[in-house]
Amino acid sequence: MLNKFIEMMKKRRTIYNINNSLPISEERLITLVKETPSSFNSQTSRVVILFGDEHKKLWHNITKETLKEIVAKKIFTTTEKKIDSFAAGAGTVLFFEEQNIIEQLQQKFPLYADNFPVWSEQSSGMAQYAVWASLA
């Protein structure tokens, strides 16, 4: 019996030669990300999707300039090449966790309060994996 999930995982791979050719529409990508379920149905995961100038600004203006200040000058060339390879992409998907919801869950379920930050990180990882797999 064919398991579609396993087959999708077999097709999924990391792409090292990033370019700005998006094989699906921006709208379809946004829909795929939005359709990703969350664990506990807590909806703590948040996503920001950047295209075009905003994508380039993230990598060139924010990331490169920030790292330039903290990475040793003699090895920054390697870091800069990696940043430029990411900037060459069609867009960026950024994940983060909504701390206000986590705090509300901690207050609502005090017995499990210490667990919610850990569960939130796990939820974020699952969301990232689900989106990564969906883009196969």
List the helices and strands and how they pair.
Blueprint: H1 4-11, H2 26-34, E1 45-51, H3 52-70, H4 76-87, E2 91-97, H5 99-108, H6 116-134
Helix pairs in contact: 3-4
Question: What does this molecule look like?
Answer:
α3 runs antiparallel to α4. This protein starts with a helix and ends with a helix. The protein is mostly helical and 136 residues long. The chain has helices spanning 4-11, 26-34, 52-70, 76-87, 99-108, 116-134, and strands spanning 45-51, 91-97. It has one domain (25-134): NADH Oxidase (3-Layer(aba) Sandwich), CATH 3.40.109.10.
Attribute tags:
136 residues, mainly alpha, NADH Oxidase
Quick structural gist:
With 136 residues, the protein is mainly alpha-helical. Helix content is 57%, strand content 10%. The chain has a single domain, classed as NADH Oxidase, CATH 3.40.109.
